[in-house]
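Sanity check

After download, print the first record. It should look like this:
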Amino acid sequence: MLLVVGVAALAGLLLAGPVLGWFDQRDQVAEQQAELGRLTAENNELIARRARFDDPAEVRRIASRDLGLVEPGEESYAVLPPSTAGVNLPNGWPFDLIASSVATASQ
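Expected structure tokens:
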């Protein structure tokens, strides 16, 4: 009886490693399949974005928007941001020497 229990315990110890490895690999396969699904969806989205560049009108629209492309006969205008409220100089030398000049110039 003791021999049977000893053999069963030894078999259990010998099989524990491969069984735990199998469970770990099964979890890894599930994670990799989820990652593959995410990458496949992202790839399909990129393929759809790339297909839009087959249309010359879309390419012109993007070039006009992002790169400032101007077609013959069109005019390009640049709208500058508003100027800042003024220059705030710290109190102390040498800034106190030029603060009045800067205030006068900004008005």
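If your output differs, re-run the checksum step. Summary of this record's structure: The mean pLDDT is 83.
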